[in-house]
Structure formats: structure tokens, C-alpha cells
Design goal:
The chain is α/β, with parallel strands linked by helices and 622 residues long. It contains 27 helices and 16 strands. Helix 15 crosses helix 16. The protein binds adenosine-5'-triphosphate (ATP) and magnesium ion. Adenosine-5'-triphosphate binds next to helix 2.
Length: 622
């Protein structure tokens, strides 16, 4: 039953169990489908318990989809389908105290903004330029992703100025540890560190799984590879799928050479899928042309896409005078297509986020429902972060970033000077530090009120976050603060707070712990924000990985946008742009609409654009 509906190659990949496997195949050939069917096959036909299979995917959305699909086939919900990050969180929530550091299992997770704040603080402390914060953060992050036992030695050995961030990194790790906090990279870094240094912990985790599967393998980085090695141990029950040509994250440390490494180190059998089920022939012709023009070093990797589908589908390209006419053209198309398609069957894939603005205003005029999936999410808004920081801090009074965010929000007269005194008094946690700091009478009064209010809620946040939130809003006069602080924008901000309280209310009713909820938010990527509502989705090409729509628009196909101006600096990044274009075209099932413009406004001035080189390459197909 489970093998039904699979072609012979797919079936072979599901049934083969004699060694590790790397399944290599082009976009839309059913790799993800094979992976989910293999899970069902192992459980149903081979008697392996679903909870003894670990499957790792690239985004939480992909993980959820996989859980749903397996559940439909088996009638049970498998527990260990997750992203690298959420898997690491599970390891550390269970075993962080075995790290031999002062972390405990209730550590908080700092997002990029939290961690940048800490880096800035340290640069000030070390009399270095705060403007370097971004660069320092990047170096530290990279050092963790390219896992070596000491990130400090690694940084010191880098060419100047990167080498000068070793001291920053030392201070940064110290600060985070004393806050009982980890950043995103730490999650993987400390999981690997733990499994690498503690044989018992390694045994425990690797014995938990009979099978380990990985989707989108081409975008794994060094540390993720190490994690897989540690979990695999001596076993060879590994199954990875990927497409060399869809590697689009090398700028974030992913290594397509991990595919060869996987085959070599695990003695994996290479299997292939050749037929494409997603797209019409004309769409595949375009995708094939794009991959055929790759630099010679990659050419032996090229997998041609074939399909049996007879229908032609629709492909159209149009050049427009400017961005407004391009948006109108797309809006008209969507309006026509909406007679035969749902809005959610259509997506606009953009190379850069600023491009979404033009569509927004035109779609509003046309009454086209749309959803922009962008980086700055609900939970990144200031008022939401303020309130969540209160809750996070009450749950973990060691959390420095949260403390510094809330101590003077709303303003209670505790400024920079007082804060640096409090910092000096930090020993175990920030409540004690605040209590023990000598402050002028007025500040003392404010501090005592703050302490008293927060202490009243200790121990409650985990189970009753909504109750605590509402009490805090009341106690600290948060609404008055919002009105004063944000004036014209305050109504919108209140709406956001109301939305947050709705979410926490539901959470409390369900009895789901607050910490788990925070994890879910922090670990969701752009792609996870795609809901199921009936609207046209506007998202970046990077976020579109693994997904598919009947109708896809690729606008703004111009030099310096796609490929991006930044990519001109190296051949390697130009090649990555080409792969990104391949990923973009292969998201389309039936219709693909390409467009470019003659001119765009840049900083208030007209700038003339050149058609993207990709359009010239595929002109015979347009
Ligand atoms: N044997 C099959 N019969 C019918 N449809 C199939 C078959 N195999 C795959 N499909 C369909 O083809 C589409 C692409 O499959 P899937 O997403 O698994 O491909 P993929 O190789 O993972 O693509 P990507 O490289 O973009 O991640 C899906 O809609 C899937 O249901
Ligand atoms: Mg896939």
C-alpha cells in the first residue's frame, strides 16, 4: 500500500536497506515524497517504531508537512521529525547540565537582535568601535558553524581584522553563559560539543534512533555534518536526499561538497530519480537550459529533468517601462487566473525584499488578497519583544538581554549610570543584583516596586503566561506607556499587544508550556510564516525552497537585482545566483511568468536597468 503510486526508481529507494543511501535527483522528482514514504515503509513493513526514526528537514514548515503526511499514512504522529535547530534544543533541554559549564536546561534562546545587543555592549567595554558589532557577530557565528573544538583559536587564526574579535568572542560566550542563554549557533555548537566530549551522552542519543534521514542535504554546513556523524556512530542506517544544483545557502556556510563526503564517509550507495512530476515540459526546458550553462566544474553534476506530462502549460515574458506597469501586468494576470485558480495557487518570488512594496500598493487597488512573507515578524516588533522579555525574564532572572530591555521600559528613571552599577553587582541573577545595588532614593523606590511586582509572578510564567501578562500590563501601566511612546502608531501597537494576549490565552487554555511556545517562535524561519489562507504569497526565492505552486511569477529579472550586484564580486556567488534561478523556475507546476523593467527609482532618482543574463539564455523558450 505504501509503495503504491511510486515509480520503480522511487520504490527501489524506499525498499533498499543494505547500506547508507544518498538519493540524488533534480527539483520536483519526488525526493521529499520518497523520504516520507520510506519512514512509513520502515514502520509499516519493517516493524521499526516511528519514534525511533529521526528525520531532519530544512524548515519547520517542511517538518510539519512531513509529520502530517506520515500521520496520514500510518495513523500515528512521529515525534522526531524536526529541523537541525529544534533537534538540538531537545538534546540540550535534556542534557545541557552535562556540558560542564554553568548552563542549565532552562536556558533561554537569544535571537539575532538580542545577541547583537550583547556584542555592542562588549565592544564598548573593550573600547572598540561599536560599528563593528555586525562584523564581529558574523565572525563568531561562522566560527561556530565551521565547528572546531575552540572557536577562539579559530578566530585568532583568521586574517586581521577578524582575528581581533577573539577577545570579543570570549567575553560574548562568558556573558551568554552567565545569562544562561544560547544564541542560534550555540544550539548546534553545544549539542555537538556535548555529544563529541561525552561518550555516554553520545551513546544515549545515537541508540535512540534506528534510522536517520535528512532532506535538502546540499545545504548542510560543517557542524550539521558533525552532528549527523555523532548520531550515526557505527551504524549505517542513514538516508539523505538532495540536489547538488539547489544549493543556495553557501553564503551562510552550507557546503555542497558534504554530499561527496557523505557518500565517502558512510559508504553510501548513490541512487537517482530521473522523472519530474511537478512541472510541465516547457518549464523544465527553461530549467534545463539554465543548468546546462553552468561553469565546467559543476557540469558533471547536472541532472536533466524529464517529464511525461503532455500539457504545455503557459510561459510568458514581458518587459515593462517601470515597476508600476510591471505590478499592474501581474495584477491583471492574477485577476484573470483567479477565475480558474485559488489565490493560494499563485506565488511571486522575489530576489530582494524591497521589491514587494510595488506589488503591495497595486494589489490593494485591485483588491487582490496577498501575504508578504518577510523577515521582520510579529514577534520582532518592539512592543511585543518588550512584553515577552518581561515574561522571559521572570522565567529566568539570569537573562541579561531581557533584563536590560525591561529595566527602564516603561521609563522608571533607571538610566545608564544606574545600570552600570547594577552590572557590577551581578553575581547570580539580575533580581539579586538590582536588590543589592545602592541607588539614589527615587530610583531605589522605583527599583523596589519593579522587584516586588516581578517577584509576585515568579514560578507562574511557564503555566500561566496570559495571566501574568495581563497583570504586568496593568501593574506597569503599559497602555499609557504605549500611547505616550508611539503616539500616532499607538493604536496599531495596541492591536499587536491584543493579538499577543490572544495567543497566550490560547496557550494557557491548551496547557502548553510558555518555554515551548518561545522556542517555536524563535526557531521558525521565514518560510514557516506561510499560512494556509487563500492569498497570493510574496516571498524571497531563498524562502521558496522545497515548495511548489501551480502559478509562479518571477519579476524584476534585471542585472544587479537577479543576479544581484553583490554576486558580481566572485564567480562562486554568480554561480549560486544561477542555482537560485533554477530553484525559482522549478517551483512552478503549470504557469511561469517572467518580467523585467526598463527603469527603477533608486534613492529618488531614475536608474536604467539591463535585462538579466538569464533571459538571454532562455530566449528560445519564451
Ligand atoms: N510517483 C509520483 N506520482 C505522482 N506524483 C508524484 C510522484 N512523485 C512525486 N510526485 C509529486 O511531485 C511533486 C514534487 O515532489 P517532491 O516535492 O517530493 O519533489 P522534490 O524532489 O523533493 O522537489 P524539491 O527538489 O523541489 O524539493 C509533488 O507534488 C509530489 O506529490
Ligand atoms: Mg523536496
Amino acid at each position: 500500500m505504501i509503495l503504491q503510486g511510486l515509480n520503480p526508481q522511487q520504490r527501489a529507494a524506499v525498499e533498499y536497506l543494505d547500506s547508507a543511501v544518498f538519493l540524488s535527483a533534480g527539483a520536483g522528482s519526488g525526493k521529499t515524497k520518497v523520504l516520507t514514504h520510506k519512514i512509513a515503509y520502515l514502520v509499516h513493513e519493517k516493524g521499526i517504531r516511528a519514534n525511533r526514526i529521526l528525520a531532519i528537514t530544512f524548515t519547520k514548515k517542511a517538518a510539519h508537512e512531513m509529520v502530517d503526511r506520515v500521520e496520514r499514512m500510518l495513523g500515528i504522529r512521529p515525534r522526531w521529525i524536526s529541523t537541525f535547530h529544534s533537534f538540538s534544543v531537545k538534546v540540550l533541554r535534556e542534557d545541557a547540565d552535562l556540558l560542564g559549564m554553568s548552563f542549565d536546561r532552562r536556558f533561554v534562546i537569544y535571537d539575532t537582535a538580542d545577541s547583537l545587543k550583547v556584542v555592542k555592549e562588549i565592544l564598548k567595554r573593550l573600547n572598540m568601535d561599536v560599528k563593528e558589532a555586525g562584523a564581529a557577530q558574523e565572525v563568531i557565528s561562522k566560527a561556530k558553524q565551521e565547528y572546531r573544538s575552540s572557536i577562539f583559536d579559530y578566530i585568532e587564526a583568521l586574517p586581521y581584522p577578524a582575528s581581533s574579535y577573539a577577545e570579543v568572542a570570549r567575553e560574548y560566550q562568558k556573558d551568554l553563559e552567565s545569562s544562561n542563554a544560547m544564541d542560534y549557533d550555540d544550539l548546534l555548537y553545544f549539542s555537538v560539543e556535548l555529544l563529541a566530549t561525552s561518550p555516554e551522552t553520545r551513546m544515549k542519543w545515537s541508540e535512540r534512533f534506528d534510522y536517520v534521514m535528512i532532506d535538502e542535504f546540499q545545504d548542510t554546513n560543517d557542524i550539521q555534518f558533525s552532528l549527523i556523524q555523532l548520531l550515526a556512530g557505527q551504524r549505517r542506517t542513514l538516508f539523505a536526499v538532495g540536489d547538488f544544483f539547489q544549493c543556495i545557502y553557501t553564503w551562510r556556510g552550507s557546503r555542497p561538497s558534504n554530499i561527496e563526503r557523505f557518500i565517502r564517509e558512510f559508504g553510501a550507495k548513490e541512487m537517482r530519480l530521473e522523472k519530474n512530476y511537478r512541472s510541465t515540459r516547457r518549464i523544465l526546458d527553461i530549467a534545463n537550459t539554465i543548468v546546462n550553462n553552468v561553469e565546467s566544474g559543476w557540469s558533471h553534476k547536472v541532472l536533466q529533468l524529464h517529464t511525461d506530462r503532455q500539457e504545455e502549460g503557459d510561459i510568458e515574458y514581458k518587459n515593462h517601462p517601470d515597476a508600476i506597469s510591471e505590478s499592474i501586468w501581474i495584477a491583471e494576470k492574477i485577476r484573470k487566473l483567479s477565475l480558474s485558480h485559488a489565490y493560494s495557487d499563485m506565488a511571486i518570488l522575489i530576489r530582494m525584499t524591497f521589491l514587494s512594496r510595488a506589488f503591495e500598493s497595486i494589489f490593494m487597488q485591485y483588491g487582490i488578497p496577498y501575504t508578504i512573507i518577510r523577515g521582520l515578524a510579529f514577534y520582532d516588533r518592539a512592543e511585543i519583544k518588550d512584553l515577552l522579555s518581561y515574561l522571559r525574564f521572570i522565567a529566568n532572572p539570569k537573562d541579561r538581554a531581557s533584563f536590560e530591555r525591561i529595566i527602564n521600559t516603561p521609563a522608571r528613571g533607571i538610566g545608564k549610570k544606574a545600570l552600570s552599577k547594577i552590572r557590577e553587582n551581578f553575581r547570580t541573577d539580575w533580581l539579586t543584583a538590582l536588590r543589592e545595588t545602592k541607588l539614589p532614593a527615587k530610583q531605589r523606590l522605583a527599583a523596589d516596586l519593579f522587584l516586588k511586582t516581578l517577584e509576585g509572578h515568579i514560578g507562574l510564567v511557564e503555566e500561566r503566561p496570559y495571566t501574568v501578562l495581563m497583570a504586568l500590563i496593568e501593574d506597569f501601566g503599559f497602555f499609557t506607556y504605549i500611547e505616550k511612546e508611539y503616539k500616532d502608531e499607538s493604536a496599531e501597537r495596541m492591536e499587536n499587544i491584543s493579538e499577543l494576549s490572544n495567543v497566550l490565552h490560547a496557550l494557557e487554555e491548551e496547557g502548553k508550556p510558555f518555554s515551548e511556545f518561545m522556542e517555536d517562535n524563535l526557531l521558525s524561519s521565514e518560510q514557516d510564516k506561510i499560512g494556509n489562507e487563500d492569498s497570493v504569497k510574496i516571498l524571497t526565492l531563498h524562502a521558496a525552497k522545497g515548495l511548489e505552486w501551480p502559478v509562479v511569477f518571477l519579476p524584476a529579472l534585471e542585472e544587479e537585482i537577479f543576479p544581484s550586484a553583490k554576486s558580481f564580486l566572485s564567480d562562486a556567488s554568480l554561480e549560486e545566483e544561477r542555482r537560485l534561478f533554477y530553484v525559482g523556475t522549478t517551483r512552478a507546476k503549470e504557469r511561469l511568468y517572467l518580467s523585467s523593467v526598463e527603469s527603477r527609482m533608486k534613492f529618488g532618482e531614475i536608474s536604467f536597468m539591463t535585462r538579466s543574463r538569464y533571459l538571454d539564455e532562455i530566449r528560445h523558450h519564451l
